[in-house]
Amino acid sequence: MEDIMGDIEQHIARRKEHGVHTIAKELHTGFNGWLAVTITNAVGTMWCAYAFTILTLISLPEAIKGGTATLIAWIAQTFLQLVLLSIIMVGQKVSAAASDKQALQTYKDAEALLEISNAVHKLLKTNTDLTQQIHKALGDKAPGDTAPAP
Q1: Which distant-in-sequence residues (6+ apart) come within 8 Å of 108 by Cβ?
Q2: Dist CA 44 CA 97 (whole Å)
Q3: What pTM did the predictor assign?
Q4: CB within 8 A of 27, min separation 6: which ones?
Q5: What confidence tier does 30 reach under pLDDT thresholds 50, 70, 90?
């Protein structure tokens, strides 16, 4: 029983030391990772989406003059790719933030359950120790045994 309690206490200590896994904590990929995250954070904003919209609208008159095929190509290759890229990245940021919040709450819930489990193990150990002391005080009678002790 003591081994289990020690294991649980060590596990709780390790969890508290490391903390919850979030996206921000996982950014340890050196220069390339830093550069990628920096660019992603710059491009993945609604302001960047607005700027890309303005940029693509500059070429819209030429696309309209070029006819249907040119206009469709402009929509698919210029407008959608530039503008939707930033909007999708903003959506990913929002989803990641929600995911981090959920991970943090799950972590806190698991911590609480581990603490409760540890407390239950301690109570069970105390109960077992007290039960053994009672049996010893009663002369080592087995539970339900009505015969007097020798």
Answers
A1: none
A2: 14
A3: 0.55
A4: 33, 34, 37
A5: confident
